[in-house]
Design goal:
Strand order of the largest sheet: 5-4-3-2-1-14
Strand content: 25-35%
CATH architecture: 4-Layer Sandwich
Order of helices and strands: EHEHHEEEHEEHEHEEEEEEH
Distance between the termini: 56 Å
Shape: globular
Family: Belongs to the carbon-nitrogen hydrolase superfamily. NIT1/NIT2 family.
Structural class: alpha/beta
Protein name: Carbon-nitrogen family hydrolase
Pfam families: CN_hydrolase (PF00795)
CATH superfamily: Carbon-nitrogen hydrolase
GO molecular function, one term: hydrolase activity
Keywords: Hydrolase
């Protein structure tokens, strides 16, 4: 299976529409790949909070239209990164969500995922966007993928839920800051090892709202070996990997079978 991770920069001097068209052209160039992955909020920039409301769109808005056409022309599965989605919540109130789109080779939107873990510590994304509530997987012809976004990478319980739901390849669309790049690499490898799954983590390049992006998109195999890693600038990272290795790894080293679920809470002894 061949995957292409498109490490995109959201340059504030480039209009959002121009970037959509440029990225669509890059997607078309990946004809022959099985899966193409884009970063988080590549239209606006993951830290460009002031642009969220003005650039918000419906699921089938301009980003979907551009990516749908590109996926269809390239004949690829496209994990199109995330958009600022404008939608009504359960109460009918209009909210913004950080939502990823998965399109099939016909350009059909087959799965979405609203980011569950919002970053910001009571500011930024954490207050501007609603939280997703449902983990998401999708079956591709050769592997089942788990859909995740950036800050999710710090929460292993989400990835275990995805693994229990059948995920063999864990995909991460991110806008990860350079100052915590060591964590990015470490966590990508940890999620791969603990779930005995592939991790395909696509980050952003450049500077978003004065925040330097880490880049260094990475592909990790079920043993934690780094198969490919990008640099810090814009780059297309392409890699061949064998989805059958997941089942082989889990059979050779069946650690997942030794989990003990439903443990009691730890006892507390007062000093």
């Amino acid at each position: 299976m061949r995957a292409s991770l498109l490490q995109i920069a959201a340059d504030p001097q480039e209009s959002v529409n121009s970037r959509r068209q440029r990225v669509a052209s890059l997607v078309r160039e990946q004809a022959g790949a099985d899966l193409v992955v884009l970063p988080e909020l590549w239209t606006t920039g993951a830290f460009a909070y002031d642009a969220f409301a003005t650039e918000a769109e419906e699921l089938t808005g301009p980003t979907y239209e551009a990516m749908s056409a590109a996926a269809r022309e390239a004949g690829v599965w496209l994990y199109a990164g995330s958009i600022v989605e404008r939608a009504k919540d359960a109460t009918g109130e209009e909210r913004l969500y950080n939502t990823t789109l998965l399109l099939d080779p016909d350009g059909t939107l087959v799965r979405t995922y609203r980011k569950i873990h919002r970053f910001g510590f009571d500011k930024g994304e954490a207050v501007l966007m609603g939280a997703g509530t449902e983990p998401a997987t999708a079956e591709l012809p050769d592997t089942t993928i788990g859909l995740t976004t950036c800050y999710d990478l710090r929460f292993p319980e989400l990835y275990r839920r995805l693994t229990d739901a059948g995920a063999e390849t864990l995909v991460v669309a991110a806008g990860w800051p350079e100052r915590r790049r060591a964590h990015w690499t470490l966590l990508a490898q940890a999620r791969a090892v603990e779930n005995q799954a592939y991790v395909l983590a696509c980050g952003s390049a450049g500077i978003h709202a004065d925040i330097e992006q880490a880049g260094h998109s990475i592909v990790v195999d079920p043993w934690g070996e780094v198969l490919a890693e990008a640099g810090s600038g814009e780059e297309v990272l392409s890699v061949e990997f064998d989805p059958a290795k997941v089942a082989k790894t889990r059979e050779q080293f069946p650690a997942l079978k030794d989990r003990r679920l439903g443990l009691d809470a730890p006892s507390h002894v007062a000093s």
